[in-house]
Write a structure and sequence with these properties.
Shape: elongated
Number of strands: 0
Oligomer: single chain
Helix content: over 70%
Protein name: Chs protein
Length: 20
């Protein structure tokens, strides 16, 4: 499946939050 820009941005934010 294709990942929408919105979902990608959301995932990135969550990922950064986890790494922080």
């Amino acid at each position: 499946g294709k990942i929408q820009a919105h979902d990608k941005s959301m995932i990135k934010k969550r990922y950064m939050h986890l790494t922080e």
